[in-house]
């Protein structure tokens, strides 16, 4: 396989995820202020760095038939779910996501929570993002 194709595909996939994460940070900053939004972003970066620091050495040093196989099955299962959703959306059997409506609904929910005196953490908003898919 061509190395540049892998690098390009990885970069594009990471760019999409970065845009989604930035959207969450901006939504939290808009509703709760920049401090909790940046605290959540920093916490997420620290968690990502820890997962990479622990995951890559253990993945490269593990035997081929052990944890590599199970992690490959997990990743394949996740990708299969995303592919299935994309095919269903393209065929019209599943409704396309309306990102504007989801953003508006989530901002309204955060505003209501803030009026009630509850300040959501950025990690709670980001965990809701995984359910948007």
Fold blueprint:
Layout lengths: L2 H30 L1 H28 L5 H25 L7 H17 L6 H8 L4
Structure write-up:
- The protein has helices spanning 3-32, 34-61, 67-91, 99-115, 122-129.
- Helices cover 81% and strands 0% of the residues.
- The chain contains five helices and no strands.
- The model has no long low-confidence stretch (mean pLDDT 77).
- The protein is extended, with a radius of gyration of 18 Å.
- The protein has 133 residues and is mostly helical.
- The chain has a domain at 28-61 and 92-133.
In brief, what are we looking at here?
By secondary structure, the protein is an all-alpha fold. The chain is 81% helix and 0% strand.
H-E string: HHHHH
- For the CA atoms, what is the radius of gyration? 18 Å
Q: What global shape is seen?
A: extended
End-to-end Cα distance, whole Å, is 30 Å
Number of helices: 5
The SS-based structural class is: mainly alpha
Detail the poorly predicted runs.
none
């Amino acid at each position: 396989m061509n190395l540049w194709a892998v690098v390009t595909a990885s970069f594009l996939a990471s760019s999409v995820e970065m845009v989604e994460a930035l959207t969450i940070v901006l939504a939290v900053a808009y509703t709760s202020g920049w401090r909790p939004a940046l605290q959540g972003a920093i916490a997420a970066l620290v968690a990502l760095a820890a997962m990479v620091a622990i995951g890559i050495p253990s993945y490269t040093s593990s035997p081929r038939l052990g944890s590599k196989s199970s992690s490959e099955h997990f990743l394949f299962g996740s990708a299969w779910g995303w592919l299935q959703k994309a095919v269903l959306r393209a065929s019209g059997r599943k409704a396309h996501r309306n990102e504007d409506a989801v953003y508006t609904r989530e901002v309204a929910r955060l505003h209501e929570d803030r009026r009630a005196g509850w300040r959501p953490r950025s990690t709670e908003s980001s965990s809701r993002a995984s359910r948007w898919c």
